[in-house]
Write a structure and sequence with these properties.
This is G-alpha-domain-containing protein. By secondary structure, the protein is an alpha/beta fold. It has 21 helices and 8 strands. The strands form 2 sheets. It has a 6-stranded mixed sheet with strand order 4-5-1-6-7-8, with helices on both faces. Helix 6 packs antiparallel against helix 10, helix 10 runs antiparallel to helix 13 and helix 18 runs parallel beside helix 20. The protein binds guanosine-5'-triphosphate and magnesium ion (MG).
Length: 519
């Protein structure tokens, strides 16, 4: 095999230059080695060029972005930020929304399957500690032994008369709220859903992470919902935290496109298993004993976000296509700060500012808030969400803090921030529907908020009261005078939210142009 001549013949400079000597090819390099080396170098150059190109694109995007209107969605965890973002997309970019809607199917399936698995975990715990589950309804020996009338009970003067045949049979039947072998069977038949949950998590790929029982995920992000807390308390100990970034959508072949054949078949497999469990899922959720068991264990999944068990029959079909309402009700916790470009397809687009916005959706839990800061400097507007239904709830990341109080403290720090002095701030007093439901169920506001006093314990009065409180703080603490925009919302109501957002958009554009002296 031909060897190359000495290095000095080809690389005379190498003799004098230690750096060139270090990176020069070996003197006795064979032809094959040379070809391999050159191929490696070409590949390294391609990667380096790709990196340079990426940096160039980012720099260009940054320059372009500088001219775009930037809206920051802020508020505590589960205040409705991501749901509001979905409403922006649905209202102003309906075509893009339509294309993306199908890609939410796997996330909704995962929300549903997780609820089922939470119930199954509780059921497994319960079945493990209770004496062997009774058979559901085994025939009594008396009724199988003879078809004739049972013998008359022997009279007794000391104690109650022994049960008659019918009474005896009734006594053998488990009480409606008791777990039986039927539940053991249900648990076994629904076991494949654990695999489906795992598969869907894998399919959603980098978008998912586990949250440990102490409430922190792999990044130390705490989870802050009754649902998560209940889940963490459940036997599983770990909670799933989905990152609301684009990666899961790409994994699912976002923008309505189907993924690769392999991904597609994984999704089909999950759908197939879920469809096969359809009747059992419905039976599990409709079962009195299961409901009683959940009540006993204080697991209220029906109050948790991303709860779809009431609609399981619709969602567990093979043909299931998510509706707009399904998508806005899905729970997908945001981790970090996610950037979205909203290209307006509707509304007046005469001005450049009305054509495209950048929206930042942030994770709202306490430990995520430090990540908001770098985005403040550049923001044109802030949409702050304060959930009004949570006056009787505590932060899961700090069980000493009332959630409404946390919202209020956060609001104060936002409105008084000097960095945000030029920002237009819009407030959504959100989750009004849940507030109304809670008050109707008899929860008393002044038990948790003594300052509310003996005002009427109804939703409009409370919303007005809070609107006033937030507005006062805005007026008193803002570093410069600015207008206050406050709305009472239920952002799961897409129709009502569409008209609110239309007015928010017009107001923001108007304010922006006024500030820039363009009107
Ligand atoms: N009933 C009702 N549910 C709501 C409302 N707003 C949001 N939700 C639900 O509450 C859950 C949490 O909403 P998200 O938009 O994910 O909350 P977030 O503020 O983005 O939360 P993080 O990402 O954890 O910061 C979702 O399942 C929503 O469907 C509302 O006004 N009414
Ligand atoms: Mg979110």
């Amino acid at each position: 095999m031909a060897k190359f001549q000495s290095r000095s013949k080809f690389l005379p400079a190498a003799l004098d230059d230690p750096l060139a000597a270090a990176i020069a090819p070996p003197a006795d390099e064979t032809e094959a080695e040379r070809a391999a080396r050159l191929q490696k170098e070409t590949e390294a150059k391609r990667i380096s060029d790709d990196i340079d190109e990426g940096i160039r694109q980012e720099r260009d995007a940054w320059k372009r972005n500088k001219a775009l209107f930037k809206l920051l969605l802020l508020g505590q965890s589960e205040s409705g930020k991501s749901t509001t973002l979905k409403n922006f997309q649905l209202t102003f970019a309906p075509k893009a929304w339509q294309e993306e809607r199908a890609s939410w199917r796997a996330v909704i399936q995962l929300n549903l399957v997780r609820s089922v698995n939470i119930v199954l975990d509780a059921l497994a715990d319960e079945l493990a500690v209770q004496p062997a589950a009774r058979p559901q309804s085994s025939p009594s020996p008396a009724s199988t032994a003879s078809d004739g009338p049972s013998p008359p009970p022997s009279p007794s003067e000391d104690g109650p008369a022994p049960p008659s045949g019918a009474e005896h049979e009734r006594a053998r039947q488990p009480a409606p709220a008791e777990l039986t072998s039927k539940h053991t069977l249900l648990k076994l038949r629904l076991a494949p859903l654990r695999h489906v949950e795992r598969e869907l998590k894998v399919r959603l790929g980098a978008a998912t992470c586990e949250v440990s029982a102490d409430g922190a995920d792999a990044q130390g992000v705490m989870h802050a919902t009754p649902f998560d807390a209940a889940y963490a308390r459940s036997a599983r100990g770990n909670d799933l935290c989905l990152r609301s970034n684009r990666s899961w959508r790409e994994a699912l072949g976002g923008s309505g496109e189907v993924g690769s054949g392999h991904e597609r078949s994984l999704e089909d497999d999950a759908t197939e298993v879920i469809a096969g469990c359809r009747d059992d899922i419905a039976a599990l959720w409709a079962d009195d004993a299961v409901r009683a068991m959940l009540r006993r264990r204080k697991i209220r999944i029906e109050e948790s976000p991303g709860f779809f068990l009431d609609e399981s029959e619709r969602i567990t079909t093979r043909e299931y296509e998510p509706s707009d309402e399904d998508v806005v009700r899905t729970r997908l916790r945001t981790v970090g700060v996610q950037e979205y470009r909203l290209k307006f397809e509707t509304g007046n687009m005469d001005r450049a500012i009305a054509k495209e916005w950048i929206m930042y959706d942030v994770g709202g839990s306490r430990t995520s808030r430090a990540a908001w800061l770098p985005y403040f400097e550049d923001a044109n507007a802030i949409l702050f969400l304060a959930p009004v239904s949570c006056f009787d709830e505590l932060l899961a990341e700090d069980r000493r803090v009332n959630r409404l109080e946390d919202s209020f403290i956060l609001w104060k720090s936002i409105v008084q921030s000097k960095l945000l002095a030029k920002c237009i701030i819009v407030l959504f007093l959100n989750k009004y529907d849940l507030l109304a439901k809670k008050l109707k169920a008899g929860v008393k506001i002044n038990k948790y908020l003594s300052s509310f006093g003996d005002r009427d314990n109804n939703a409009p009065t409370f919303a007005k009261y809070l609107h006033h409180k937030f507005r006062e703080q805005h007026k008193d603490l803002s570093p410069e005078h600015r207008s206050f925009y406050g709305y009472v919302t239920s952002v799961v109501d897409t129709k009502a939210t569409a008209s609110t957002l239309a007015s928010v958009r017009d107001g923001l554009i108007q304010q922006y142009l006024q500030k820039a002296d363009l009107v």
